[in-house]
Amino acid sequence: MNYGDLIKDAFRISWRKKYLWFFGFFVGGVGSSLGGNIPSGAGNFDGGGTEQSGTPGIAAQLGPGVFDNAALIVALVVVGVVISLLLLALTLISQGALAENVAAIDRGEGRRFGSGWRAGLANIWRMLGYYVVYFLITLGLLVAVGIPIALLIAGTFAATDSVGARVTVAVLAGLLGVLALILVFIPLSIIGQYALREIVVRRTGIFASFGGGYGIFRRGVGRSLLVWLINLLLGIGVTIAALIGLGIVGLVLFLPTILLTFAEMTTAAVVAGVVAAVILLPIVLLVSGATGAFFHSYWTLAYLRLTGHREDGGPAAQQAAVA
Fold this sequence. Notes:
Blueprint: H1 3-16, H2 20-30, H3 55-62, H4 64-68, H5 70-107, H6 113-122, H7 124-159, H8 163-201, H9 206-219, H10 221-262, H11 266-306, H12 314-322
Helix pairs in contact: 1-11, 2-5, 2-11, 5-6, 5-7, 5-8, 5-11, 7-8, 8-9, 10-11
């Protein structure tokens, strides 16, 4: 596999098929943080356990304004849940859309936004199942690594009162735990990338996809690790370049705001800041979408190459990528 061509092909597809940036935004931007953003406050409500007689006492303790705003609080929670579910759905759709479209373009087939959206919708439940299984595997591995480390530390604390021995064992156990996590989760992340493409491109089952992903990794451990390392280095480089570029653009845009603030022209500074933010926000969204599309394309093309897909898409593929 020519790794230089892999990078160039991923860049070419993501640059010439700019509709992929829409999906790339939810994969590389919003989608990366969805796991920690889904509200869990619904579990704090007790719909049937509060007696009417206790309500006045609670209201007296907390103040009359709390229950007056209950409807607003519930509405905000509902809006938050709806938005989170919408972002989650768009992330799942985008994963399937990008994998299917990039694979089709590499085969020389033409694709548009509509076909990508339909492909994403067709795979949305499979993507949801994929993430559920991936989460369970991750949780199981964390438990498998964490329990022995915890038992080792607990056993040391029970066996001796020596502070030095306890600290030494705790530090060594912590280092071993970090090393074990690295050795476990780097392969898992690679297998997860392959499994996602197995589901979308080869239409395998959710559980079978992880077996297929493991098989691809096992047959080409060195190449898979090199693909991962290149991805890591590219990610660091792209992140630094994006931060520098956006920082320069942001400084230029907000320079009038800064000058007006020092001149104590508050109203004008606020207006200039709003205008600068309105200009900067689309640029940030475009950068996020473009980078998300590129890295997703990179892994899809790596999967296709490692599974025996032709190295050269030929004139048809190049023509489709240009279209």
